[in-house]
Amino acid sequence: MFPSIKLLSVLAVACSVTSALPLDARASGTGITLINKSGRTQLYSFFDNLWNGVGTAGANFDHPMANPPTLKAGESRFIALPSSFKGRVQRGNSGLIPATWVEFQLNDGTGKAWGDVSVQQGNDGAATLKGNVVVGFTQDLIKDAPAGAFAKDATGAAFKRPDGTVAHVLGSTVGNWIPKNVEALNWYKKKITDGKTYFMDGAAGASGTTVANSANGQFTVEFY
């Protein structure tokens, strides 16, 4: 069983879990406008938290919602989600490979949505979330990262994708389910200075982040 993970308290409140992901081209109701800013076709997976508490959440690593969308390079699509959704969207079809997390909830009980971008659990590329403000990052933090910052599993081996290719992703800064990577943490301290990306465990003293909100239960999410 995976341990709980510490998240921003505004994102960790009670929710009901939904098992299917409805895809909808309309831009009304709760959900996100998902934009693939990369130069390749990309699948995106949504993970509803297993449970939510005050400042913590049950990390859902291996049960993505059904019908994950695949977007062509440059494509934009509105993804309809229930207002009860509290979790994340990330690249790829495996929650077990460290990745950049775009975390959000669509209704905090007052009708307001909240979201952030986090590299606490890994970094497989840039992403932003737009609500009342834009949070996240657009720069390539992987290209020039030190060798020791790349993710390794508990045995010291590099992560591999389902097709067998090595996942060139940066490691976790908190060590919830893979070893904590101090070199990745130090890299972010040098490179992430605008307070718009979550990269440290807040309880450890550190990187608070700007959190976006939305009054209509919608965000725009861009993956680079």
Overview of the structural elements:
Residues 1-20 form the signal peptide. InterPro entries: Osmotin/thaumatin-like_sf (IPR037176). Keywords: Signal. The chain has 224 residues and is mainly beta. The protein has a single domain (4-223), classed as Thaumatin (Sandwich). It is built from 1 helix and 13 strands. It has one helix at residues 182-191; strands spanning 4-6, 31-36, 42-48, 56-58, 70-71, 76-80, 86-91, 101-105, 113-118, 127-130, 134-137, 212-214, 218-223. The strands form 3 sheets. The chain has a 6-stranded antiparallel sheet, with no helix packed on it. It has a 5-stranded mixed sheet with strand order 6-2-13-10-11, with no helix packed on it. The longest helix has 10 residues, at 182-191. It is globular. It starts with a strand and ends with a strand.
